[in-house]
Amino acid sequence: MAELVWSESLRLNQPQMDHTHEEFVELLATARRAADADELPRALGAFKRLLEHTIGHFAQEERWMRATGFAAENCHSREHEMVLKVMHEVVRLINEESRWEPLRVFVGELALWFPQHAETMDAALAQHMAEFGFDPATGLTTKPLPEDPILHCGGHCH
Question: What confidence score (pLDDT) does residue 72 get?
Answer without folding.
Answer: 76
